[in-house]
Inverse folding.
């Protein structure tokens, strides 16, 4: 842990967002992760994205499970709500939180262990229900807190710091999402905020479950020669052909639209996503072509990043279930709990 | 941009704003850390090595360091560097045995020095330990020059002056001939000295020849520096109740405050131009106003009003200025009544005692032609420095000149080329003590600048010699020392170790780091994480980074040297290293003569 808290330097006024807050207002406590951890860069990207979105911290809930990644909500947006759940249970807690208060923006942060091993069932069901939330997997391919054993996302052939190369096929969260009917699937790299920040903003605007798999090198246990999740390997094997820009509702769209593969998608809140570039024949709304494209590159050991799949037509959990339009806390008690007579009526329907 | 060459001492030297701005390159952060550690002797000696007169300068310096101080760009108020310098002098113990010894065995070279002011004493200070025999010729009966005669003792007590001059002239190797004005340089040159140094200052106050100046009331119109000198000598101990000071330099401030102490009641400093164009340091203006002196702007003097042989007032044009204060127009003409007028509009050099056939060329304004690097005149072996060389500057410049002249004199006497200057060097020592542990206090301290306490106004004018500034209390200097941003603890970057994880970029509290594609300076400056606000400060640009070929760019402008970049770096590509500028002094090329600096761990980090 650093010797000092990041000091607040009273420099000539820092820029403020629409709420009058500076980027420092979206920070949290000092990170206790290892120096150079990819997770800290993702934290910085989250801070930047939510500051730029001018989202009031009180409207945000940060949720996490167990692991290095799940420690990070402490390190950003100190004014937000937070829930650090049991191992792998974050998706379940988030589903409950979403049901109770649909007005919160839910930001779940998890890791490859938390999401793809112990918590994979909860993740799959949250995808299936299309819970409106941002779900970030900080994916480093190892269990950092327990000293670097390979996790379920480790590629075949990747070498741990000690021991034999991996022989078991990995679970790819993007492929999992495609098969479970996910409506927003992105992959990014902790070392590339230019790509990650717009993806995070688009995920917040998405009406449903937005999964972002962020490759986040573990400097302590998985940044060596032979690892497929090291800074160097990702930089050498990253394919960034899907390039997206996010334009919030209030801004004029100035990004150049046109050229190879460019197209725009209007999000349900009116903001606009522009696919500035996509590869020939690639359709980010077509499940099959996306899957084929990713598989094709995986065969060559390449990592495709960007906002890979988007379906803005899907219905979120609330629409499917016809839930109330407001947070439960805002519904008057006599409506929320209308009394035993109403319950008796309801029960008689099932007799 | 080309990768920054940090092996050139000039790069990191530039980052240490205070040291860079100081003509004598005083190692300011170094001595401030020593104060924080309670090591006042070392702090004093570190000061003395470069500026020779810490006690004197700690009270009277023009402080070029403070406007340059990085802290001023961070929270608006620079570190009270000058006051901390005084702390080293106030709290030091016995240091005489730690000064460079004066050898019994002389080197056979004799140097004559004219004047016993700051630049002359600096030359003597540097040359005596090398075995030179030095004769100083001083026109007055005590050493110090303008420091004694022109700076009032309520700002600079005589004891401080005596101690610091004595440390130079009373330790052997130096003979001061008092009451010995040099009447003829030609004569002196004929006396077999190996070199001559002229440090006689700019002793003549400028005249203001307006109507009435030389009429019968002449005795009530004074030349500022001469008047201050007469007060210092004790020849003058009173003045009329209503006093006008013409001029707004620091001498004017000394005049008005001295007048307040010898009988002046209604004292006005009359300025031609608006306040932002004053030459006086802002703090000297504040001190004068605190003592009830009025500062009157936009008044251009026209004539002295003499009635019945008495000075009764002075006539001024009240003017307004255009933008930039280049042209004025007269609004009205008024008479301000007064009993005495003191003229403090500047000083000039005067060399009636230098014959013009000695091979010493004189140029513009009858100033000698002096080489700016070597301080040598056009006659080999004759050197000038301080105000005598290029007209009035200040004490710290005089000291800087003295050091350079001493190097030249030494080289000249040893038969070396004076133009061949010994190079400066640098030393970089890592201050890493362990995981996230440094041997300097790296946290940012939000304390405001400490205010110097002044002696109560009810007591202040009891005696002319009562020092006004009381010095810092222990709490004050401890707090003020922590305000220093340790700009000499450099962020040293090793590009080959960098894995571009962004940890340093993310943690930096002032967002001064950027990893990006290289570009030319103007273009690169526009796409930094924080746009470049101060082109006067350097950009550090690394060699291409191993993984992507991008470069690490650091805008030095407001780095607070907190070390978080180095703490969050997984590969130790960043390190915090204490930079020491190895300044050359006479006989000591590029070395420091204090072995222990703040590298000691005694403060223990945080």
């Amino acid at each position: 842990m650093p010797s000092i808290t990041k000091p607040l330097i009273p420099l000539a006024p820092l820029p403020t967002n629409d709420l009058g807050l500076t980027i420092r207002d979206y920070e949290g406590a000092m990170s206790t992760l290892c120096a150079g951890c990819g997770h800290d860069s993702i934290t910085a990207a989250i801070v930047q994205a939510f500051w730029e979105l001018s989202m009031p911290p009180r409207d945000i809930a940060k949720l996490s499970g167990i692991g290095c990644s799940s420690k990070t909500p402490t390190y950003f947006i100190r004014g937000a709500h937070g829930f650090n759940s049991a191992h792998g249970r974050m998706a379940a807690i988030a589903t409950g939180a979403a049901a109770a208060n649909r007005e919160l923006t839910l930001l779940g942060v998890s890791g490859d262990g938390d999401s793809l091993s112990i918590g994979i069932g909860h993740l799959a069901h949250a995808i299936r229900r299309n819970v409106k939330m941002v779900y970030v997997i900080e994916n480093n391919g190892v269990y950092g807190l327990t000293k670097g054993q390979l996790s379920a996302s480790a590629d075949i052939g990747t070498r741990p710091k000690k021991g034999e190369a991996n022989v078991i096929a990995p679970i790819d969260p993007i492929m999992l999402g495609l098969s479970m009917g996910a409506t927003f699937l992105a992959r990014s790299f902790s070392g590339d905020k230019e790509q990650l920040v717009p993806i995070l903003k688009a995920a917040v605007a998405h009406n449903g479950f937005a999964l972002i798999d962020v490759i986040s090198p573990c400097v302590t246990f998985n940044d060596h020669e032979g690892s497929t999740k090291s800074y160097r390997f990702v930089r050498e094997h990253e394919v960034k052909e899907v390039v997206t820009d996010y334009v919030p509702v209030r801004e004029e769209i100035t990004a150049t639209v046109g050229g190879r593969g460019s197209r725009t998608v209007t999000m349900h809140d009116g903001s606009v996503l522009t696919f500035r570039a996509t590869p020939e024949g690639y359709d980010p709304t077509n499940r099959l072509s996306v899957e084929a494209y990713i598989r094709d590159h995986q065969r060559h050991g390449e990592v495709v990043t960007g906002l890979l799949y988007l379906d803005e037509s899907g219905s979120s959990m609330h629409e499917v279930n016809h839930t109330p339009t407001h947070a439960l806390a805002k519904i008057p008690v006599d409506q929320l709990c209308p009394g035993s007579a109403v319950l008796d009526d309801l029960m008689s329907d099932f007799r | 941009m080309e990768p920054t060459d940090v092996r050139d001492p000039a790069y990191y030297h530039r980052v240490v704003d205070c040291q860079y701005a100081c003509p004598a390159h005083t190692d300011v952060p170094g001595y401030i850390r020593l104060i924080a550690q309670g090591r006042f002797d070392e702090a004093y000696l570190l000061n003395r090595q470069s500026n020779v007169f810490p006690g004197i300068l700690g009270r009277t310096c023009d402080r070029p360091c403070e406007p340059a101080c990085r802290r001023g760009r961070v929270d608006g108020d620079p570190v009270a560097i000058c006051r901390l310098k005084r702390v080293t002098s106030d709290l030091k113990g016995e240091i005489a045995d730690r000064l460079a010894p004066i050898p019994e065995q002389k080197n056979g070279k004799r140097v004559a020095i004219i004047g016993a002011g700051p630049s002359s004493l600096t030359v003597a200070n540097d040359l005596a330990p090398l075995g030179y025999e030095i004769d100083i010729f001083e026109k007055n009966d005590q050493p110090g020059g303008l420091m004694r005669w022109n700076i009032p003792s309520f700002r600079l007590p005589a004891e401080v002056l005596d101690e610091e001059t004595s440390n130079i002239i009373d330790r052997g190797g130096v003979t001061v001939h008092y009451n010995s004005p040099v009447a003829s340089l030609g004569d002196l040159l004929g006396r077999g000295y190996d070199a001559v140094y002229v440090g006689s200052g700019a002793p003549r106050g400028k005249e203001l020849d307006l109507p009435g100046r030389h009429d019968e009331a002449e005795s009530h119109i004074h030349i500022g520096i001469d008047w201050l000198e007469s007060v210092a000598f004790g020849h003058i101990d009173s003045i009329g109740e209503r006093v006008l000071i013409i001029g707004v330099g620091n001498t004017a401030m000394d005049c008005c405050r001295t007048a307040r102490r010898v009988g002046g009641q209604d004292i006005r400093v009359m300025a031609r131009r608006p306040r932002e164009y004053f030459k006086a340091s802002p703090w000297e203006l504040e001190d004068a106003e605190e003592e009830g002196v009025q500062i009157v702007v936009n008044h251009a003097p026209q004539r002295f009003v003499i009635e019945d042989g008495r000075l009764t007032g002075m006539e001024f044009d009240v003017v307004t200025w255009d933008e930039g204060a280049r042209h004025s127009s007269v609004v009205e003409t008024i008479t301000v009544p007064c009993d005495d007028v003191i003229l403090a509009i500047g000083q000039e050099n005067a060399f009636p005692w230098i014959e013009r056939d000695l091979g010493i060329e004189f140029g513009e304004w009858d100033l000698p032609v002096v080489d700016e690097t070597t301080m040598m005149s056009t006659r080999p072996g004759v050197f000038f420095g301080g105000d005598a060389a290029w007209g009035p500057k200040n004490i710290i410049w005089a000291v800087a000149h003295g050091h350079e002249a001493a190097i030249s004199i030494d080289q000249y006497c040893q038969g070396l080329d004076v133009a061949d200057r010994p190079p400066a060097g640098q030393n970089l020592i890592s201050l890493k003590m362990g995981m996230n542990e440094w041997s300097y206090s790296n946290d940012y301290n939000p304390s405001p600048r400490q205010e110097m306490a002044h002696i109560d106004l009810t007591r202040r004018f009891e005696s002319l010699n009562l020092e006004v500034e009381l010095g810092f209390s222990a709490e004050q200097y401890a707090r003020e020392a922590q305000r220093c941003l340790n700009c000499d603890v450099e962020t040293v970057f090793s590009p080959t170790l960098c894995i571009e994880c962004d940890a340093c970029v993310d943690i930096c509290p002032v967002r001064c780091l950027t990893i990006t594609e290289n570009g030319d300076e103007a273009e690169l400056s526009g796409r930094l994480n924080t746009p470049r606000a101060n082109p006067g400060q350097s950009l550090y640009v690394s060699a291409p980074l191993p993984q992507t070929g991008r470069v690490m760019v650091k805008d030095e402008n407001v780095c607070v040297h907190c070390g978080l970049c180095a703490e969050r770096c997984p590969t130790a590509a960043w390190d915090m290293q204490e930079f020491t500028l190895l300044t050359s002094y006479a006989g000591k090329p590029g070395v420091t003569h204090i072995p222990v600096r703040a590298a000691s761990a005694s403060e223990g980090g945080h």
Remarks:
- The interface with chain B takes residues 1-4, 6-12, 34-38, 40-41, 43-44, 190-191, 193, 217, 219-220, 223, 231-232, 235 of chain A (CB under 8 Å).
- The first strand of chain A starts at residue 60 and ends at 64.
- The longest helix of chain A spans residues 38-52.
